[in-house]
Amino acid sequence: MCPSQTPVLLSVLICALALNGGTAARADELGTKYYRVVDGKVDARTYNGFRRYHAGCNHCHGPDGVGSMFGPPLVDRLPAIDVFRHIVRDGVRKGNSVMQGFSGDENVAPYIDDIYAYLQARADGMLGRGRPARLGQ
Questions:
Q1: What is the mean pLDDT of residues 107-133?
Q2: For 36-81, what is each residue's pLDDT tens digit?
Q3: CA 111 to CA 34: how far, in whole Å?
Q4: Is 134 helix (H, G, I), strand (E, B) or coil?
Q5: Which pLDDT value is given to residue 96?
Q6: Max CA-CA distance within the chain?
Q7: CA triplet 128, 131, 136: central angle to 5 degrees?
Q8: Phi and psi torsions of 88, nearest 5°
Q9: What class, spelled out in words, does domain 33-134 have in CATH?
Q10: Residue 40 and residue 135: Cα distance in Å, rounded?
Q11: Helix or strand or coil: residue 42?
Q12: Do residues 32 and 124 touch, judged by C-beta distance below 8 A?
């Protein structure tokens, strides 16, 4: 690493700690899964997350979380759930890119964890692209 990279690396580390509330042990690192997939079929939460994602998020983040010209892919680097909740509720600005917050959207805000469950199953490779089948159906 060159000496000029040290301040940048330190800044990134400080931001990451701030976003995580300073806690080193995130739920994701402890193996918490918000989805349930059995024989390729998903639980109600994950299925609802699929529906909510495709109703409100895919316009920017692409079908199945793979990204688009407007928004980055979510299945490649899904953040910890606490960071995800914060970003979805409050929005985020990175340079010229802006994502609005959805804290007042009754079709998104109450279902953030469901959306996360769907994206986490996709990110973990437990769920392919397209509409998933539901457990018990």
A1: 96
A2: 999 999 999 999 999 999 999 999 999 999 999 989 999 999 999 9
A3: 12
A4: strand
A5: 86
A6: 58
A7: 100
A8: -65, -40
A9: mainly alpha
A10: 9
A11: strand
A12: no
